[in-house]
Amino acid sequence: MSISDMILPLFIGIIIFSGLYRGIPIFDTFLKGAKEGLSNAFSILPSIIGLYTAVCMLRASGAIDLICHGLSFLTDKIGFPSEVLPLALLRPVSGGASVAVLSDVLKTFGPDSFPGKVASVIAGSTETTFYTMTVYFAATRVKDTRYTLKSALLADLAGILFGAVAVRLLL
Amino acid sequence: MLNAIWAFMIIIAVITGFITGNLSLVAKAVIEGASDGVTLVLGMLGVMCFWTGIMEIAEKGGVMRFISSLLRPVTKLLFKNLNKNEPAMGAIVMNMAANLLGMGNAATPLGLRAMQLLDEKNGGRKKASHEMCMFVLINTASIQLIPTTVILLRQNMGSASPGEIILPVWLVSVAALLVGVLSIKLFRKAEKK
Question: What residue numbers bound the domain in which B29 lies?
């Protein structure tokens, strides 16, 4: 049994135990949260359908392969799988698009292939930078966000490059 | 932005399909993609529900508070100009704990609250304070204990070991955040000159 297999059940166990210890109504609390999850899932349904269909169309037309092959001379040099480029490009822009592109990579190349693993790690360790920045600064009176975008995009780039390195070294 | 990107994706697909003679495959992809999109979300539905339910217990049962208390030393380092008893600091720490637990629903309102408090402290100036930049940066870097969506997608696509990406995800997200924090400090220094 690996550490990763133990994390999830232990984590859930600790949460339930602490809830019992605090004396909260465990199952009622669970239901309240689960209902929120349900309405969330339904609210993202239309955007996932729209985005996933667009990605499938791009894949079927051959455009994704063309772009990836076209840029592979750049990515090959640093040992980055060019198949993951569409994810790397869309990740900072849209969460829904990332789910769509990640699913496409996992389906096309397999979740346990090198591109599949790299795509998984990148999707798990980066965020929708543009969206987050827009929403957070919209809550303030700030107009000049200074170096925030530069730094956030640098962090994304680092996450994308480190993702490939980490998969090579660890998996 | 997504309006333009989505339209662009479809136009490119149609034009490329026309040139490469793959239009019939594109037509097939429209039908298959749309129904697979439903399968995709339905495949996540159960775990999403279960997970948000568990996270509600984590929030009410004190695990979130415990994690935010563990984060205090880190936030003290990142936000040197904020007093630890300030309300903004409280909202920041809770937001980070919620993000760590992957509770997007709870994290966003806490984060917006923190931004408003920082805005007041900044006197409503047009120029963002360094603390605001730092806080938004942290929120654009996803540090998550369990990347649920990714694990779930891997499982649904038949991975032999869906969860094996957890350790690399931790290392990569921390490393990426460090790059972000380091760069933000350097940019700030460059700006002062």
Answer: 1-49
B109 touches chain A (CB under 8 A): no
In this prediction, residue B32 carries a pLDDT of 95
Minimum Cα–Cα distance from B32: chain A residue: A53
Q: What are B149-177's pLDDT values in tens digits?
A: 999 999 999 999 999 999 999 999 999 99
For residues A155 and B179, the answer to whether their CB atoms sit within 8 Å is: yes
Q: What is the dihedral of CA B91, B94, B100, B102, to 10 degrees?
A: -90
Number of domains in chain B: 2
Model confidence, pTM = 0.92
Q: Count of CB atoms within 10 A of residue A139's CB?
A: 18
B-proximal residues of A, 133-162, CB under 8 Å: 133, 135-137, 139-148, 150-152, 154-156, 158-159, 162
A146:B191 CB<8 A: yes
The interface predicted TM-score of the complex, written ipTM, equals: 0.92
Residue A102 contacts B, CB cutoff 8 Å? yes
Q: Which domain holds residue A64?
A: 3-170
